[in-house]
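Dear H.,

Thanks for agreeing to be a second pair of eyes. The structure we're designing against is below in token form, covering all 467 positions.
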């Protein structure tokens, strides 16, 4: 009664057992005692020498009798999906026969990683502990014992034999009326767990120089570092170069000032690196190498123990990210990534803390707008910067709201990407095209698919072998 309402199927199976054995089993009474392995229930109706025989019969009849009669409890499917959304594994530990439990889950489309059967109370705890479970959800007092034995958070749902008051009185850490409340609870639990992990990691650094691009991730990291270490043991640094979009440096300075930390703006010379100018798929590696080669000695001079970047868990899990590897190779730490914080969690925590960048659109460096293979030059970067500023102004003047906006440099023409909902209006607006051509592009097109982070990767050759 945690994920599924198994009572109709169990009652029907007991009825079949009664028919096969000639011994009447009260199905209603049996279903009121769900939780322990079936052998304990069989022992209520049959002599000891027949317990295993009848239990085996019950299990043999169960698949054809029970599975089709059983439905998911409200919120069960969404709860399984919530665990997966946070990168967790879904483990079902039950007193039921494991193959029968698996049949139910498959029938209802619940994708779980493992099913462990014939486990109850303390034995459940052992199974949970062996698998490193952090949270255990159940409806029985035996599930509380299991969670305690595994050192897991005990979440009780009042859909089984105990109501919410009884579960609270027993000592469950969290009590929910049903599983519909579990996804929201899990979201908050995971966020708080990861924020605590982040604080511990930052405290362990002792002091830190945050590579502050001005975007949501590095801004939140700076705020978190100040909370963990105090402003006197934190500084921010923004590399100043042609690849930095207009206004980003001023925004970074203002944020650092609001947090009471020193802000440094060392010049970076990625333009002097041939690999950066060549603009291959590894361009970000050359850029990040330059940034870290500048920031590491700067941190040492400032008496700061580490250099940290705003790489988050989503960044690390995405596709082509050579800059992340380059930063790691040069000793930079990535506390957000290591604490498991996703982009959405960074934005939510930023909103709660009042960090002004919580809803700031993604703002990668200007070089990310230049198609791979075209040389990155200060002139190209300046043209993109002018085009984006002019286009955004034109859209504001025309009353076309956009959040994400990019002007991609394809060489002889520009490709505009905006929010999918605004594509048609932007494509039909003469002032939009004029803003981009006025910045120095010969022609302009509006991408009908809308804004996509990392869309330049789509222009790379497919590395997979062809038949």
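And this is the sequence the design step returned. I haven't edited it by hand at all.
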């Amino acid at each position: 009664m945690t994920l599924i309402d198994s009572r109709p199927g169990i009652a029907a199976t007991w009825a079949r057992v009664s028919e096969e054995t000639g011994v009447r089993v009260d199905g209603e009474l049996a279903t009121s005692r769900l939780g322990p392995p079936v052998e304990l229930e069989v022992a209520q109706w049959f002599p000891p020498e027949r317990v295993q025989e009848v239990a085996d019969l019950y299990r043999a009849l169960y698949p054809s009798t029970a599975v089709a009669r059983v439905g998911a409890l409200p919120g069960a499917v969404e709860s399984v999906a919530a665990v997966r959304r946070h990168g967790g594994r879904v483990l079902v530990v039950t007193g039921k026969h494991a193959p029968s439990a698996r049949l139910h889950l498959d029938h209802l489309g619940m994708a779980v990683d493992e099913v462990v059967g014939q486990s109850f109370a303390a034995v459940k705890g052992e199974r949970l502990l062996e698998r490193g479970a952090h949270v255990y959800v159940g409806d029985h007092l035996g599930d509380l014992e299991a969670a305690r034995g595994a050192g897991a958070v005990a979440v009780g749902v009042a859909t089984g034999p105990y109501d919410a008051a009884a579960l609270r009185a027993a000592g469950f850490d969290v009590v929910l009326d049903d599983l519909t409340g579990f996804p929201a609870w899990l979201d908050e639990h995971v966020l708080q767990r990861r924020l605590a992990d982040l604080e511990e990691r930052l405290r362990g650094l002792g002091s830190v120089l945050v590579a502050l691009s001005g975007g949501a991730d590095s801004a939140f990291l700076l705020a978190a570092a100040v909370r963990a270490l105090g402003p006197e043991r934190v500084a921010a640094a923004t590399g100043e170069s042609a690849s930095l979009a207009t206004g980003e440096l001023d925004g970074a300075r203002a944020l650092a000032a609001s947090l009471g930390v020193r802000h440094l703006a060392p010049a970076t010379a990625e333009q002097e690196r041939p690999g950066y100018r060549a603009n291959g798929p590894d361009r970000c590696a050359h850029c990040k190498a330059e940034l870290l080669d500048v920031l590491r000695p700067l941190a040492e001079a400032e008496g700061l123990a580490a250099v940290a970047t705003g790489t988050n868990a989503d960044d690390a899990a995405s596709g082509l990210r050579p800059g992340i590897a380059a930063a790691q190779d040069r000793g930079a730490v990535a506390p957000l990534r290591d604490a498991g914080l996703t982009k959405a969690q960074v934005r939510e925590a930023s909103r709660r803390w009042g960090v002004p960048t919580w809803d700031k659109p993604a703002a990668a460096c200007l070089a990310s707008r230049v198609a791979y293979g075209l040389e990155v030059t200060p002139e190209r970067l300046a043209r993109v910067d002018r085009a984006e500023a002019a286009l955004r102004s034109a859209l504001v003047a025309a009353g076309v709201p956009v959040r994400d906006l990019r002007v991609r440099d394809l060489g002889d023409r520009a490709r505009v990407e905006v929010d999918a909902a605004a594509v048609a209006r932007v494509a039909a607006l003469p002032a939009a095209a004029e803003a981009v051509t006025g910045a120095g592009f010969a022609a302009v097109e509006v991408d009908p698919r809308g804004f996509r982070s990392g869309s330049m990767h789509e222009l790379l050759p497919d590395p997979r072998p062809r038949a």
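Two observations from my side: Residues 269 and 294 are 9 Å apart (CA to CA). The longest strand covers residues 153-157.

Warmly,
E.
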